[in-house]
Amino acid sequence: MTGYRWIEGAGDILILCDHASNTVPDDIDLGIDPALLDKHIAIDIGAAPLAEALAAQLGAPAILAAVSRLVIDFNREPDAPGLIPHVSDGHAIPGNDAADRDARIARYFAPYHAQIARTVRARRPALIVVIHSFTPALENGLAEPRPWEAGILYNRDARAARIGVRLLREAGIVTGDNQPYSGRVLNATMNRHAEATGTPYLGIEIRNDLIRDAAGVERWREILAKLVTDVRDHLAQGPLAAT
């Protein structure tokens, strides 16, 4: 099993989904109740079908992670403590205590990021879009409930984010600006493949109760298809389009 799933497309937008899967390879035992694999700690609920639907509508290439974030978290730096989590939202992951970090990086993390890097070099996308989802409230009680319907995350490069936040709010969507958490703190995939290459990007978070079913995915497919094409077109018009 490789670290990613590839969807072919000829469009100029590249779609990524770091937490698309809750698959745990047969030779890895996380030591957890299997029911946890359906929770947000294992997978970004609704993110994969939304990314797939968006890619289909836009004719865009897409790269989706193929194993659970509990096996390895693709949206982390290779030396980050949370790359292979030992606890997630209050749940212990005891099977990771003796995990071979280098082996998991080589088997899953490195191929995923190598495919993204190859695609960015070859395609030079006008915009990279990464799809995540967030839980309305953490089980550990360490954060306030999250009222946003969507969030746009970014680090230093806010070109696309400024436009995206404005357009979503103008559409009446309760939108977090670097919420429910800050891209200045956690933005590893976009730091590596967008900020480091000068490629504009949208880090999009959708509250997962809004995309748990096919109707929710369809609604947000329509919203995001318009959003990302409008952001791409605004960027093509130059800096004044962001105001």
TrEMBL record:
Alphabetical list of Gene3D superfamilies matching this protein: Zn-dependent exopeptidases
InterPro entries xrefs: N-FG_amidohydro (IPR007709), UCP029730 (IPR011227)
Pfam families: FGase (PF05013)
Stated name of the protein: N-formylglutamate amidohydrolase
Organism: Sphingomonas plantiphila
